Amino acid sequence: MAVFSFTLALMAMACPLKAFDMAQSTRCVAIPNQMKVCKDVGYSEMRLPNFLGHSNLEGEVVPRSEDWKPLLQTGCHPQAQAFLCSLIAPVCLDTFIQPCRSLCMAVKDSCAPVLACQGHPWPEALDCDRFPAEEDMCLSPHAKFSHFVKGLPKPACQNCPSVEDAPAMKTVLDAFCHHDFAVTAKIHRHRTLTGEPEFEIQGRVEFIRQGPLLPYDTQHLLHRWLLINLKCANTLVRPGRSQLYVLTGSVQPDGTLALTRLFPWHKKDTNIAVATRKWKHHRC
């Protein structure tokens, strides 16, 4: 399974690597189509060996690159792909272009908590001290991305929220009152050919209580919550199935979104249907 291979990849990267020798013989190769993690990264040729010491394209570089797909799917940082691909598939130019230490720190600050949520440390091979501080000769972070990230809620790493089947109408209305937002969303779980469970939010997210959520961002935000809190997500829907949920929660002072109470909405759950209708005229 991909989760298992990702764990092995992190264990391998936790071992200290020999310093990359800028004087060693290198060659340029086309980035292969199957290397999807670095697809559309902005250039078509990469240098081997790469900055992680991998020289075998098919045996090391491509499979190791795909191990980072689960992290990148969480959207933990808008430049996470650029950072990782600058190491896995460095651009083939007349000079070596490494990521700047400042870019490493920016990505680490956002993505290390996601790895920690899934039980993994930040790899020693990505120790930010190994990268240059001179930003004129390395890949630097973009200020516009930093501003954009700070302006949107982020999914929290959290314990599994309470899941309540067949709730009473008052229970549902109280949940609407006591939390910042309430939405309905259909969660679908399917499996890839490798057996890796994947999640998506099917259809539109319907707002019952919008609160601080942004309509254009909420579906993506909930999807990222599922990917970050993967163990919890696995308990919500069986493989190959979809389930409609009423989700309530709050945006924390640090800007993270936490889900608090979840109600599976089955056809027989008339109390949920009545509660959503009464909410417009309900006084908390």
Description:
- The chain is an alpha/beta fold.
- The protein folds into two domains: 2-150, Frizzled cysteine-rich domain, CATH 1.10.2000.10; 154-281, OB fold (Dihydrolipoamide Acetyltransferase, E2P) (Beta Barrel).
- Helix content is 34%, strand content 21%.
- It is built from ten helices and ten strands.
- The protein has helices spanning 2-14, 57-66, 69-73, 80-88, 101-117, 143-150, 169-178, 218-228, 230-234, 270-278; strands at 27-30, 45-48, 98-99, 138-139, 154-155, 162-163, 181-191, 197-209, 242-251, 256-264.
- The strands form three sheets. Strands 5, 6, 7, 8, 9 and 10 form a six-stranded mixed β-sheet that branches.
- A hairpin with a 4-residue loop joins strand 9 (242-251) and strand 10.
- The protein is elongated.
- The termini are far apart.
What's the quick description here?
With 284 residues, the chain is of the alpha/beta class. The protein has helices spanning 2-14, 57-66, 69-73, 80-88, 101-117, 143-150, 169-178, 218-228, 230-234, 270-278, and strands spanning 27-30, 45-48, 98-99, 138-139, 154-155, 162-163, 181-191, 197-209, 242-251, 256-264.
- Please give the radius of gyration in angstroms: 22 Å
Q: How much helix, percentage-wise, in residues?
A: 25-40%
The residue ranges in which pLDDT falls below 50 over 5 or more consecutive positions are 1-20
CATH topology of the largest domain: Frizzled cysteine-rich domain
- Under CATH at level 1, the class of the largest domain stands as Mainly Alpha
What sequence of helices (H) and strands (E) makes up the elements?
HEEHHHEHEHEEHEEHHEEH
Q: Got a strand count? A: 10
Protein structure class: alpha/beta
| CATH homology-level superfamily of the largest domain | Frizzled cysteine-rich domain
Biggest sheet architecture: 6 strands, mixed
| N→C terminal distance | 47 Å
By CATH, the architecture of the largest domain is named: Orthogonal Bundle
Average pLDDT metric: 86
Q: Categorize the overall geometry.
A: elongated
The tally of helices reads 10
Task: Give the amount of beta strand, in percent.
Answer: 15-25%
GO biological process, one term: cell differentiation
Subcellular location: Secreted
Disulfide bonds: 104-128
Pfam family, one: Fz
